[in-house]
Specification:
single chain, 85 residues, alpha+beta, two-stranded antiparallel ribbon, 29% helix
């Protein structure tokens, strides 16, 4: 990839780059278990003419916990707005 970037070869090599957001990486967890990951691939065989496939993870326990924290935060904010009894 560096040789291609420097113009020392005309054929771009296949490559994959992974980015992880919001968590430490690398660590013991597989990248499939990370909250937000981005994979950059290029070039490679075409994806059947469909372009780049996007994948959204399925909701799991972490997603449910985030929703519960949002609800608790909203309840706490509502409590702060009430006048003292």
């Amino acid at each position: 990839l560096i040789l291609f970037q420097k113009g020392q070869t005309t054929t771009p090599p296949p490559f994959e780059i992974f980015f992880c957001f919001g968590e430490e990486w690398p660590d013991r967890k597989p990248k499939e278990k990370k909250l937000i990951t981005v994979q950059v691939k290029g070039p490679g065989p075409p994806q059947g003419g469909r372009g780049i496939p996007l994948q959204i993870s399925h909701p799991d326990l972490k997603d449910k916990m985030v929703e519960q924290f949002k609800e608790l935060h909203q309840l706490w904010q509502n409590q702060q707005r009430l006048p003292p009894a």
